[in-house]
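ok so I'm stuck.
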Amino acid sequence: MKVTDITWDTDGEDIELPTEVEVPNDIAHDEDGRIDEDEIADYLSDEYGWCVISFSLPTDDEMIRQALIKGFQDYYEHTSAFYQGESVEDILNWLERQKPTNQDEQ
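replied:
not stuck anymore, here's the structure
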């Protein structure tokens, strides 16, 4: 899961830290599948050595899109028959254009 808009508590020090980080799903979600913001904050602090003041979580639509992108990336890492240099975004955009119209459904 990608968290964005990360604000770090650097005690006023001028340090370059990321504003977006991909957090592993097993850390971002608790055993019931709910997002665990405390675990995310702990992960970020452990990884970068600074406390987190705030961050933004993706919307449901963004989470679905991230999962699709991750799935495509994993699949195409092991399969090259279809993938010929197109970005995952290009493939998702192509799939979006393939949705049937009402006329196609009749």
